[in-house]
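Dear colleague,

Following up on Tuesday's group meeting, I ran the structure prediction for the two-component complex that the binding team flagged. I've pasted the input sequences exactly as they went in, so you can double-check that nothing got truncated or mislabelled along the way. The structure tokens for the whole assembly follow below. Feel free to forward this to whoever is handling the docking comparison.

Inputs:
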Amino acid sequence: MFRFFLGRLAVLIPTFIGVSIIAFSFIRLLPGDPVALLSGERVMSPERHAEISHQLGFDRPIVVQYLDYLWGVLRGDFGLSIVTKRPVIDQFFELFPATLELSLCAIAFAIVLGIPAGVIAALKRGSVIDQILMGTALVGFSMPIFWWGLLLIIVVSGILQWTPVSGRISLMFFFPSVTGFMLVDSLLSGQEGAFRSAFNHLILPTIVLGTIPLAVIARQTRSAMLEVLSEDYVRTARAKGLSTFRVVGIHALRNAMIPVVTTIGLQVGVMLAGAILTETIFSWPGIGKWLVDSVFRRDYAVIQGGLLIIAGIIMLVNLAVDLLYGLINPRIRH
Amino acid sequence: MTEVTAVSPISTDPSRRARLAEFWYYFSENRGAVIGLVFFSFLVLLALCAPLVAPHDPAIQFRESVLVPPFWQEGGQLQFLLGTDAVGRDMLSRLIYGTRFSLFVGVIVTTLALVGGILVGVVAGYFRGWIDTFIMRIMDIILAFPSLLLALVLVAVLGPGLTNAMIAIALVYQPHFVRLTRAAVMAEKTRDYVVAAKVAGAGNLRLMFRTILPNCMAPLIVQATLSFSSAILDAAALGFLGMGAQPPTPEWGTMLAEAREFILRAWWVVTLPGLAILLTVLAINLMGDGLRDALDPKLKRS
């Protein structure tokens, strides 16, 4: 297992270096002068230009600049935002809990509905229920989620007036952020109605962000279950006279979960991409909206840092999924 | 060539017609796939004949009829079957012209990613060694970013617009084709027929592209349909974020972005472009499922 871990790590390190080179060169690939771009000053005298250039280290050889950048990144220094002049990493940690809370709710939503739907569809293969479930899953898989969000706002917030349109909590409430998770913080604050407000704000974004993972998990669970159900050991379990519940729940589901766990792990990248759209629609103050806003504000320091941090997170999650997979399924280690 | 008289759908007849017949047999088993194909053909026709079918020019603004609802609603006009948008352009005409952009995006992105991915993947899988390691590391790097985020940043670098959006999306999709091609080439490379061709004196290029590649196409075709639909979704998403096709282009995602402020006032300007995206993507994904069933030999045996 340790060797397996080392092997994965050996692949990860060059990939991370490559990712950092891309993030580093990004600012130099942009049309225009990187010094002007990074300082945010459009018009400047040659002396001022030289001064800032020296300040930012642009007068040194490119290799030295890159190594310096990499050293900074390893110590958690991702530079300063051009717009707010604050460290990129600080802003990231301020906004990340909002995205994490939303993503966790969305993936929980997808798992809780997706796995049972896949199991039922597999057990009732070819029936009307199977066709309805898988038809719905395909619609979900084909969904332009930015439109799905707008549609839910029209129906649920506009016509039915059940949920608020945007933000994380009603402006009536104010309490200090302890964990950064609005659901937890609102409970800790002890204010009446605060949790309900936070919960209501989460419903629509959760559904929107969870839709595609839900569809993927349901489809994957169904096909994994179908494969497992035709195995000999399931037939043996049935022949022993075990109840359907035991056969499906204990024998089949456990083995069918192996590919499903990988699928869930792979959804992290999908979630972060989905967060860009979901957070934009619902004005959710998280990483996705931050990055989109930065693209429009031309805050290249934020884009550069954000790209690298997100790629780093995805790589770590993939490593964790690989390791987990190696633990459940020893065959993969070789 | 022998006539197709096989009773069993699994024929051993190697002729192209027989293989096509076999493919069609499995494809048409899947009702959804046939529905998808019919709808997709309809969209292709619509895109080709857009100037003939569309009742109005998609760019003409009827200033006296702004935000007219669809004809069946109160205040609707038969002149504008699906209503008009905020500056009085006919929705139906814009939706019909939008088909052109979406299908075009799908075709270009898939072609670029497929051709690029095959070239790189065949080289990696055939030669192995350091060149393979090098290529696969680069693909890992691209895959480390969420595709939409990378496409968004690339478009920010290249400048907003449909062409740049297509280039960015194609680049982001390429690694999937590289990986599939490489895996398939590696599996085929040691087969007897390849060794035989090599002994017969076939050069590297011939072995790579004439001998091995045609036998690796099945997973690539399935991936291509998947990319086709995802490309339409991602291009629309970029348009929605303001980084894809620019107004007044009647691209569906861009139309949605323009319509956002009317979300609670005029449902049709928001609902219809999204519905068009959903139906198009759904039709292609239905076809994709059918293709997978028809091309996957593992499923055929069962």
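The CA atoms of residues 63 and 69 of chain A lie 10 Å apart.

Cheers,
M.
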